[in-house]
Amino acid sequence: MKITKVLIADDIEKECVDLLQANGIEVTIQTKQSNDDLKLSLPAHDAVIVRSATKITKELIEAGVGGRLRLIGRAGTGVDNIDVVAATANKVLVMNTPQANSRSAAELTCILILSLTRHVPQADASMKAGKWARKDFMGEEVGFFLF
């Protein structure tokens, strides 16, 4: 399968676009399209790259395979916004990037743990209620060992 023309249907990092173009792939960036617009643009492309905003339905896949569409790439972990059954039935390859947000997810997990340990949600509620019960939020210490 030779990919020469890719539609970017959701906002992605500029580095991704640069990488595709550096490898001789023609890139069309058309984000926030309606389903009717996608039905018109998908058949003209070998592949489409989406994040979570664009839903790739059976109807869109069937419109795309009437033209050149052979690959759907998901810039992210899940593929719940892509009708994988319809893609498979139409011989369209679905790919995702399961490790793309692992670091961000790990960072968020650490921050949420820290916020619970330091009673940040309770302190926030206290401040919003017009109080600052400083002593209620003291006494916890957190340490990290970095390798």
Automatic annotation (TrEMBL):
An MF annotation (GO) of this entry: NAD binding
D-isomer specific 2-hydroxyacid dehydrogenase catalytic domain sequence ranges: 6-115
Highest taxon above the source species: Eukaryota
Pfam families: 2-Hacid_dh
Record's protein name: D-isomer specific 2-hydroxyacid dehydrogenase catalytic domain-containing protein
Taxonomic classification: Eukaryota, Metazoa, Ecdysozoa, Nematoda, Chromadorea
Name of the encoding gene: Acey_s0065.g3581
